[in-house]
Write a structure and sequence with these properties.
The chain is α/β, with parallel strands linked by helices. The chain has 2 domains: 93 residues, Rossmann fold (3-Layer(aba) Sandwich); 89 residues, Rossmann fold. It is 37% helix and 16% strand. It has 8 helices and 9 strands. The strands form 2 sheets. The protein has a 5-stranded parallel β-sheet. The two termini are 39 Å apart.
C-alpha cells in the first residue's frame, strides 16, 4: 500500500503526476492556508504532508495531536518559519525544505525591479494602457543608467550572491553588501560594508528572510 500524502495547495501538473506515482494523494485544491482543524487533521490522518507558506504548524497544533500519524512535513519552499521545527521534532515529525530552488527566479525578479525602477517601465506601461502614449519625445520618460552604478545588497546568502552576479557581470555595477556575519569569499568583486554604506548605494536590494 502506498503512503498517504496530503498536498495543501495546487502544484504544477508535473509535480502532481510524480506524487500520484509514488503516493496515495489527497489534493486540497484551494489557495488559502490550512485552518487549525485542517492542521490537526493533516497530522492525524496522513503519513506525509506537503505544506507551504501560511500553513502554520505551531506548538499548539502538535500539542493537540500528541501521537501524529504524519512523520514528515516536506515544505514546498525555502522558508519554513511557519513550522515550529522543535515542536515537530519533539513529536517525531521530520521537516524538510527546498534550499536553492528559487534562487535564480528570485534574483531575476530583483534585477527586473532594478531595471523597472531605473527605466520607469511601470510608468510607461501604465501610460500605454491608459491610451495616453503620444509617441516618442526626447525628454519623455527619461530614466537613469544602471550600467556602472553602485548596488547595495542587504543579505548576502544564495539569493544575494545571485543578484550580485547579475549586477556585476551583466551591468558592470559596483557591488557592496551588508551581511550579519562576515563573508570570506563573495565569489566576485564585492565589498562587505556597514548598513549605512550599503543603504547609500544608487540601488538597494533587500535579500533577507
Amino acid at each position: 500500500m502506498k503512503p498517504t500524502l496530503l498536498i495543501t495547495r495546487r502544484l504544477p501538473d508535473r509535480v502532481l503526476e510524480a506524487a500520484h506515482a509514488r503516493f496515495t494523494v489527497t489534493l486540497r485544491d484551494r489557495t488559502d492556508p490550512l485552518s487549525p482543524e485542517e492542521l490537526r487533521a493533516a497530522l492525524r490522518d496522513h503519513d506525509l504532508v506537503l505544506p507551504t507558506l501560511g500553513d502554520r504548524f505551531q506548538p499548539e497544533v502538535f500539542a493537540d495531536v500528541p501521537q501524529p500519524r504524519a512523520k514528515l512535513l516536506a515544505n514546498f519552499g525555502v522558508g519554513y518559519n511557519h513550522i515550529d521545527v522543535d515542536a515537530a521534532k519533539a513529536a517525531g515529525v521530520q521537516v524538510t525544505n527546498t534550499p536553492g530552488a528559487v534562487t535564480d527566479a528570485t534574483a531575476d525578479i530583483a534585477l527586473s525591479l532594478i531595471l523597472m525602477t531605473a527605466r520607469r517601465l511601470g510608468e510607461g506601461e501604465r501610460l500605454l494602457r491608459a491610451g495616453k502614449w503620444e509617441g516618442w519625445g526626447p525628454v519623455q520618460m527619461l530614466g537613469t543608467h544602471v550600467t556602472g552604478k553602485r548596488v547595495g545588497i542587504i543579505g548576502f546568502g544564495r539569493i544575494g550572491k545571485a543578484i550580485a552576479r547579475r549586477c556585476h557581470f551583466g551591468f558592470d555595477m559596483e557591488v557592496v553588501f551588508h551581511n550579519r556575519s562576515p563573508v570570506a569569499d563573495p565569489g566576485l568583486p564585492a565589498r562587505q560594508v556597514e548598513m549605512a554604506a550599503a543603504m547609500a548605494a544608487d540601488f538597494v536590494v533587500v535579500a533577507v528572510p
